[in-house]
Specification:
By secondary structure, the protein is α/β, with parallel strands linked by helices. The chain has one domain: HUPs (Rossmann fold, 3-Layer(aba) Sandwich). Helices cover 34% and strands 16% of the residues. A 6-stranded parallel beta sheet has the order 3-2-1-4-5-6, sandwiched between helices. Strand 1, helix 1 and strand 2 form a beta-alpha-beta unit. Helix 2 runs antiparallel to helix 7. The longest helix is centred in the first third of the chain and has 13 residues.
């Protein structure tokens, strides 16, 4: 089975994440999408990051009606800080029957050359890239690379940061969140 790994803190998961994951599930050759909830991104500050289990619960609830997309807590038990290359090795050992691919935004492709062991990732895995509006340029080594596939997914300019800030400021952010996720955030008083 060909599985697309969509990594993120999902703090919180929003309709942009779902639109991209669903587009990849429906309009690429990927059989399933695993939304890998990252415990802590080495490039992000941790102070506004909800507990792993709260974020997992919201992702689980958001994906209830999506057959081809499921949450993954695979990184919760890996040593921190964790790097994508380590997760991929772990997944290959645990699920040798699957072919794992990465899903990333164009903004991440622009910094891929800075990732730990990015050459090993590219040697063993395909990368599916969705468009993002961002500054910077893509390294020429990634132009026309046989393992990098550009997918013409919708451009989603929604961010979890924008949602968290909106909640903090008392704005109505409900249209940007799956209903179940909004209920959880509202009930628990998250991000206030």
């Amino acid at each position: 089975m060909k599985i697309g790994l969509y990594f993120g803190t999902f703090n919180p998961i929003h309709i942009g994440h779902l639109a991209i994951a669903n587009h990849m599930a429906e309009h690429s050759d990927l059989d399933k999408i695993w939304m890998v909830i990252t415990p802590h991104n080495p490039f992000k500050k941790k102070n506004s990051l909800l507990d792993n289990n709260h974020r997992y619960q919201m992702v689980l609830e958001a994906l209830e009606t999506y057959d081809k997309i499921e949450p993954s807590t695979i990184e919760f038990n890996l040593p921190q800080p964790n790097y994508t290359v380590h997760t991929l090795v772990h997944l290959e050992e645990k699920y040798p029957q699957h072919d794992f691919c990465l899903i990333m935004g164009e903004d991440n492709l622009k910094s891929l050359h800075k990732w730990k062991n990015y050459e090993a990732i590219l040697a063993h895995h395909h990368i599916y890239v969705y468009p993002r509006i961002s500054s910077g340029t893509i390294e020429t080594q990634f132009d026309n690379h046989p393992k990098i596939h550009r997918v013409s997914a919708p451009i989603m300019e929604i961010s979890s940061t924008m949602i968290r800030n909106g909640i903090k400021e008392g704005k109505n952010v409900r249209p940007l969140l799956p209903v179940e996720v909004w209920k959880e955030i509202d009930t628990m008083g998250f991000y206030k």
